[in-house]
Amino acid sequence: MMVPGLSENVDCPRDEIASYIDGEMSLSDDAAFEEHLSGCEVCRSELKDQKEFLLALSSSLDSEKDIPLPKNFTRIIVANAESRVTGLRNPTEQFTAVFIGAALFLFILFALGGDVENFIRIYGSVTEKPIAVGSFLIRQIFNVSFSIAVVIRSLFSHLSLAWALSTFGIVLAATLLFAASLSIIRGRRTQEN
User: Fold this and answer.
1) Buried b / exposed e along 132-164 (16+ C-beta atoms within 10 A)
2) Is the pTM higher than 0.90?
């Protein structure tokens, strides 16, 4: 390290000065550093400067008076933080995100040039099957939900609690059997593959 005022390189353990001040060094490292200090004016000066800085910092913090906080300080901070969070709640931010996405898509299409037709064909073949599976799953979830709603409606049309609980048990058992049969079918399909 180049020390100001000297024309030669001096290898000083300046990084160890903070550890020495904080008392974080082992006894052997502490002794070795003190031996270095006895022969190095630069490190002694740096040690003195750092100690003076810490004393000045400590005295300035001690002389500061505590600022009184209102009783509901935390509530005020939380309310202000929640009211200033916009995220994607702001419609202009959503529009900007969609606009940037569309612009990037158009840029990609123009960059592809004559290969746009191949790109669309490949993109369509890749997305066709997941879209078909997704729409099938959505239809099935709708059908099951509609069936459950009909069963629950019929259960609660009869105000007998015992009858409602027994019917709910039957529906729950049927649902569990259905889920078990699906897992068995999946297990057989994985064994066949």
Assistant:
1) eeeeeeeeeeeeeeeeeeeeeeebeeeeeeeeb
2) no
DSSP label at residue 69: -
Counted residue by residue, the chain has a size of: 193
Average pLDDT over residues 61-72: 73
Contact, 10 vs 3, CB < 8 A? Answer: yes
The whole-angstrom distance between residue 92's C-alpha and the CA centroid of its chain comes to 24
* C-alpha 140: how far from chain center: 33
- The answer for residues whose C-beta is within 8 angstroms of residue 19's C-beta and 6 or more apart is 25, 29
CA–CA separation, 186 and 193 (whole Å): 11
Q: Residue 191 and residue 184: Cα distance in Å, rounded? A: 11
pLDDT at residue 64 greater than cutoff 70: no
115-159 residue pLDDT tens: 777 777 777 788 888 888 888 999 999 999 888 888 777 766 666
113: left (phi over 0), alpha (psi -120 to 50) or beta: left
Separation of alpha carbons 93 and 85, rounded Å: 13
- Looking up tokens 């000066």 gives 45
SS (H, E, C) 155-193: HHHCCCHHHHHHHHHHHHHHHHHHHHHHHHHHHHHHHHC
Model confidence at 4, pLDDT cuts 50, 70, 90, reads very low
Residue 189 is predicted with a pLDDT of 73
